[in-house]
Write a structure and sequence with these properties.
This protein has about 150 residues and is mainly beta. Helices cover about 5% and strands about 30% of the residues. The chain contains 2 helices and 12 strands; from the N terminus they run E-E-E-E-E-E-H-E-E-E-E-H-E-E. The protein has helices at about 85, 110-115, and strands spanning about 5-10, 20, 40-50, 50-55, 60-65, 75, 90, 95-100, 100-105, 105, 120-125, 140. The strands form 5 sheets. A 4-stranded antiparallel beta sheet has the order 3-4-5-6, with no helix packed on it. The protein has a two-stranded antiparallel ribbon with strand order 1-2. A two-stranded antiparallel sheet has the order 7-10. It starts with 6 loop residues before the first strand and ends in a 10-residue tail after the last strand.
Length: about 150
């Protein structure tokens, strides 16, 4: 039995917007769009001439990034994915005290697949075992000169 999720699930921070996208065992990623616009809290804005983004108007959580010339593609912000969907289920009894706090082993999750593209991405906080292991260049939010840290 695979520990890979059969759906991408997530939402905004306040819970006003939730989504679930089924992934068949034959698909790498869902082929349908997230039904985010069904929520009254879902809002979109033009962030540049060819890009629009969406957010929850109740809590301000960023949700998606879309190119206007690629309406069939929607990029979900990784922070909107549910914890278990992203990093997997906690393995009971695997907790270990470390200098950075308690670390728990996990099984499953789709997070590592999210970062296999090798493209650049920007982050303020790394997700241990996910964003710090992916290929490509990573940039801190505050870096003005574009210097990658990896």
């Amino acid at each position: 039995m695979s520990s890979r999720p059969t759906a991408l699930t997530g939402g905004c921070q306040c819970g006003a917007i939730r989504y679930s996208l089924n992934i068949s065992k034959d698909e790498q990623w869902p082929t349908n769009q997230p039904p985010l616009s069904t929520s009254a809290s879902y809002k979109e804005y033009d962030s540049s001439s060819n890009v629009y983004r969406s957010f929850c108007s109740s809590c301000g959580c960023s949700l998606t990034f879309n190119y206007k010339d690629k309406p069939e593609e929607t990029d979900l912000y990784v922070g909107t994915l549910d914890e278990e969907c992203l990093v997997g289920k906690k393995i009971p009894g695997s907790e270990k005290d470390t200098e950075h706090g308690v670390v728990t082993q996990r099984e499953g999750g789709i997070g590592k697949e999210c970062f296999e593209s090798g493209v650049n991405f920007y982050c303020e906080n790394a997700i241990h075992g996910i964003t710090d292991l992916g290929p490509g260049h990573k940039f801190y939010k505050m870096d003005q000169d574009g210097t990658a840290f990896a």
